[in-house]
C-alpha cells in the first residue's frame, strides 16, 4: 500500500517534520508520496471539525468510498479543522485547538476518521481561519498525530510513480488566512490577532510565485491548495469583507493563471462547487461538518449560468482520480451518504497542451450546491 515516501506514516512524518520546526516559512523539503503506477486517487475534505451528525455521516461515506479506491493515497484537507461552538470566559469566539492534548483531537479527528479504509490514509492538511483562533503549532509538525500532516504554513507535496519515478502531480499548499485581507484589522479573537502579527502577507504571494516557477518543469498536474476561495458563486462573508477577500485572493488567481496551474482546491465556503475560469479549475469542498444557513439575499448574487440548488444537501466531499496515461483526472462530488452529485473532469495537464488544444476542451457548466442546516 502506498504511503509518504515509503511510509509508515508515523515514523516518516515525525522524523522529517520535527526537524523543520525552526526553519523559515516554506523552507521544508517537499513531501513525496509514491503511487503504484501512473494512477492515483485522493479525497478532498474541508470545514469539518464540529462534532455534528453531518461530520460523522461524511466520515462514514468517505470510508466507504476509500474502500472502492484501491489506489487512494491520502485525504487532501483544505482547512478549518477544529471549530468551537462557544466562547471563552471573556466572551471571545473560540477555534482551533489549545495544545496537542486538547480533547478535540480525539473527539473530532481520531475517533471520527477511523474506518477500516480511511484510517490508512494520511491527512495532507493546511490551516483555516478557525484554526488561527487557537494554537497553530499544536496542529503542525505531526506533534499530536503523525497522520495529520502540516509540515509548514506553505509547503509542496509531489506524487511520483514508484516504479518509474515519473512525477504524476505537484501540490503547492498555501496558508491563505494571513493574506485573505479580512482578519488583520478585525481578528476573530485575540489569539488570531497574535498569530497574525508577525506574518508577512507578501511572503506568501512571493513564495507561491517562486515555488510554481521552481516546479514548472515537473511533469504531471500542478495543483494549488488554499483554504479561502479565489472565485465562487457567492461569498460567505458580508459584502465589505467579501470585497477585501476578493481583492486579496485575486493576487492568487493571477499567479495561478501565469503559471498554468491546472486546479485550485479550497474550502471556507460550506459548499460543493466546481468552476473553470481562464483554464484553471476551482474545486470547492467545504462540506465536511460545519453547517451553514446562507442568507436569502445571497440567492440574488448567483452568477448567471451557474447551476445552483440542492440546498438540502447535508454535507459532502470530493474525490479525484488521476490517470496520467489517459491524460485525465475525474472529479466526483458526493453527499454525506455517498450519493454522487456531479462529476466534472480535468483534461491533460495544461503544461502539455497548446493554446489550440486548451480551447478545444469541452466547456463544463459551473455547479454549486450549498450545504444546508441539518
Automatic annotation (TrEMBL):
Keywords (A to Z) from UniProt: Hydrolase, Signal
InterPro entries: Calcineurin-like_PHP, Metallo-depent_PP-like, Metallophosphoesterase_PAP
SUPFAM superfamilies reported in the protein's UniProt record: Metallo-dependent phosphatases
Gene Ontology MF annotations: hydrolase activity
Pfam family for this entry, one: Metallophos
First and last residue of the signal peptide: 1-27
Name this protein carries in UniProt: Calcineurin-like phosphoesterase domain-containing protein
Location of the Calcineurin-like phosphoesterase domain: 41-271
PANTHER family according to UniProt: TARTRATE-RESISTANT ACID PHOSPHATASE TYPE 5
Organism: Pyramimonas obovata
Domain of life: Eukaryota
